[in-house]
Amino acid sequence: MPTITSSVIFAVYDYLFPPTEPGKQWRERASAEAALRTKAQQDAQTAWKNGQREASKKLNLEAKEHYREMEHYNSKAEQAIFAHYNNAANAAQLQQVDLHGLFVSEALVRARTHLEACRKARVSRTTFITGRGNRSTDGVAKIKAAVQDWLKEEEGVTVDESETEKNPGIVVAVIEVDSTPPEGDADAAWPWKAGETVAWAVMGTVKSLFALASTAAPQSAPLAIEPPKSASTPNFSKEFEVPPSPAPPGAFNQKKLPPVKSAANDDGDDDWEVVAAPVARQARPRPATKAPRAKTAVAK
Predict the structure, then answer these.
(1) Given pLDDT bands bounded at 50, 70 and 90, which one contains residue 172?
(2) Does the CA dihedral 100-103-106-108 come out positive or negative?
(3) What is the distance, to the nearest Å, from the Cα of residue 20 to the centroid of all Cα atoms in its chain?
(4) Is the predicted pLDDT of residue 180 greater than 70, yes or no?
């Protein structure tokens, strides 16, 4: 005979008795799993005392499985309850957040998420709807006290006591908002980025207009200033011409000879003969001529 799981039983129960409160069916399932977990833990302790080690281990594993199921059902209930009391319009405006029907731990998680969203969106005032505690067992608003204590420890946040005293089911928080966007936050920095883009576009347009005006204006050619030429200006180019240097002694040049036709050298090419270049002779200094001696008369 197939076993009927708890999920099938809960599904049939929800069909026959539809829940009237949001998340009620998930809370009931979580409570049932919590009771099964408690029973498994007690049985595991009893088996351990009786020396049944293997049975105690199995019961401990069963208790852990019931705990995971309990957390799963509580998460389902939290999502359903929060979605019921918070519509999309209020969530987008971030003016308030409703924490009705949540456990204290769940309400604090939602409150922290809401506060961070307000800071990023530069919302300076928001309201936490906590309820008056009418559904609590002792009639004390546990969520309100927990939210107030948490907000007092948050930096840059103050609680508006006057608004809180007027309505005992809410907590109003005043948030210090920074005027400059944080680094890496594209959603909060878009107004500043848009203004910067417009400023750069205006500067680019002004530069283009100045460039267009400068190119449209006629530009006069620069005057070439040349020194005046006169007939008396000396020409030093010829006076400083360097004469060609004579060939050094022993230099050789090539002289083309007429082709010589012979049987041994009949390759069709012209023959070249290397001859010595003429060496310029240097003039020897002439000896000084002696003056003729004057003839003297000899007395006879």
Answers:
(1) very high
(2) positive
(3) 50
(4) no
